[in-house]
Automatic annotation (TrEMBL):
<dbReference type="InterPro" id="IPR006131">
    <property type="entry name" value="Asp_carbamoyltransf_Asp/Orn-bd"/>
</dbReference>
<feature type="coiled-coil region">
    <location>
        <begin position="11"/>
        <end position="38"/>
    </location>
</feature>
<dbReference type="GO" id="GO:0006207">
    <property type="term" value="P:'de novo' pyrimidine nucleobase biosynthetic process"/>
</dbReference>
<feature type="domain" description="Aspartate/ornithine carbamoyltransferase Asp/Orn-binding">
    <location>
        <begin position="154"/>
        <end position="302"/>
    </location>
</feature>
<protein>
    <recommendedName>
        <fullName>Aspartate carbamoyltransferase</fullName>
        <ecNumber>2.1.3.2</ecNumber>
    </recommendedName>
</protein>
<comment type="subunit">
    <text>Heterooligomer of catalytic and regulatory chains.</text>
</comment>
<feature type="binding site">
    <location>
        <position position="135"/>
    </location>
    <ligand>
        <name>carbamoyl phosphate</name>
    </ligand>
</feature>
<feature type="binding site">
    <location>
        <position position="138"/>
    </location>
    <ligand>
        <name>carbamoyl phosphate</name>
    </ligand>
</feature>
<comment type="pathway">
    <text>Pyrimidine metabolism; UMP biosynthesis via de novo pathway; (S)-dihydroorotate from bicarbonate: step 2/3.</text>
</comment>
<keyword id="KW-0665">Pyrimidine biosynthesis</keyword>
<keyword id="KW-0175">Coiled coil</keyword>
<feature type="binding site">
    <location>
        <position position="56"/>
    </location>
    <ligand>
        <name>carbamoyl phosphate</name>
    </ligand>
</feature>
<feature type="binding site">
    <location>
        <position position="230"/>
    </location>
    <ligand>
        <name>L-aspartate</name>
    </ligand>
</feature>
<feature type="binding site">
    <location>
        <position position="168"/>
    </location>
    <ligand>
        <name>L-aspartate</name>
    </ligand>
</feature>
<comment type="similarity">
    <text>Belongs to the aspartate/ornithine carbamoyltransferase superfamily. ATCase family.</text>
</comment>
<feature type="binding site">
    <location>
        <position position="57"/>
    </location>
    <ligand>
        <name>carbamoyl phosphate</name>
    </ligand>
</feature>
<dbReference type="InterPro" id="IPR006132">
    <property type="entry name" value="Asp/Orn_carbamoyltranf_P-bd"/>
</dbReference>
């Protein structure tokens, strides 16, 4: 088992890694859409261990493995496992790892947990979100979505809006984008929710252009992509959440004020920050984005398994 196949951070991916994954995702997509029954992962097992709630990411990994012809075993909800008796996640993973799964996909609310899981397990570990820290596979599918929508990643201008401090998708997306040329990122958030220092530091090191703004209006017509995120209620204190809640709401009416409407992305789930009336716009590509996640995760699994 190659331990170098752990996927813990988006910083592991170079430009050529991302391009290779996009090419594989496109090829798998063609084969699936042509009705081919894939058996690339036949006899292999993917284990999903989500110690924090998830719908799309968990199901997308499970569907990806199933569509590659492999098997999936899921840890199941907390109340039906030994975690309800107080077992540590580390011990759960050690036990499962001893059953020799081919890949373990982990989500946990603690930043840095995925790296710890990778140290514990001999099977390759994929980080499906570790607290506010990172969500590398989300960033890969986001960049794949940008590429599919615009035909390029070089030279894109992306506005990332919402909770940029606790939102883990933001750090990973920034890291992946920083591999490409002439990218500009507008970080749009209240001052209290600006991106974390460690994220901006990496962008500075990689000479990626970015600006910090408080209102989307100032950048809207310059954007190719507006990436909306929810406020991470579960990582904030209630007063802070209530105070900032109304800061950013993207509605159809708001967007129609602008001469140019960018492509609208959202990692989902959405709450109130992106209203359903936006769904009718041709620029609303967030459900397509979720679908792209299936093919990008299939590509990643294919590479990790070496099939």
């Amino acid at each position: 088992m190659h331990k170098e196949m752990d996927v813990v951070s988006a910083l592991q991916f170079s430009r050529s890694d991302v391009e290779k994954l996009i090419a594989i995702a496109e090829e798998l997509r063609r084969r699936v859409e042509n009705g081919e029954k894939l058996e690339l992962a036949k006899g292999r097992i993917l284990f999903t261990a989500f110690f924090e709630p998830s719908t799309r990411t968990r199901l997308s990994f499970q569907f990806a493995m199933a569509k590659l012809g492999g098997n999936v075993i899921d840890l199941g909800p907390e109340e039906v496992t030994s975690r309800a008796k107080g077992e540590s996640p580390e011990d759960t993973l050690r036990t499962v790892d001893s059953y020799d799964p081919d890949i373990i996909v982990v989500r946990h609310r603690e930043p840095g947990f995925a790296a710890r899981a990778a140290e514990i397990c001999k099977a390759p570990v994929v980080n499906a979100g570790d607290g506010y820290n990172e969500h590398p596979t989300q960033a890969l599918l986001d960049v794949y979505t940008i590429w599919r929508s615009l035909g390029r990643i070089d030279g894109v201008t992306v506005g990332v809006m919402g909770d940029l401090k606790y939102g883990r998708t933001i750090s990973s997306l920034s890291y992946i984008l920083s591999n490409f040329r002439d990218v500009t990122i507008y970080f749009i958030s209240p001052q209290a929710l600006r991106p974390r220092e460690e994220v901006l530091k990496i962008l500075d090191q990689r000479r990626t252009r970015y600006e910090l703004l408080e209102k989307p209006d100032d950048a809207m017509e310059k954007l190719d992509i507006l990436y909306v995120t929810r406020l991470q209620k579960e990582r904030m204190n209630p007063e802070e959440y209530e105070r900032l809640k109304g800061s950013y709401i993207i509605t159809y009416e708001y967007l129609s004020r602008f001469k140019k409407i960018p492509m609208i992305m959202h990692p989902l789930p959405r709450v109130w920050e992106l209203t359903t009336d936006v769904d009718v716009l041709p620029q609303a590509i967030y459900f397509e984005q979720a679908k792209n996640g299936l093919y990008m995760r299939m590509a990643l699994i294919k590479i990790i398994l070496g099939v």
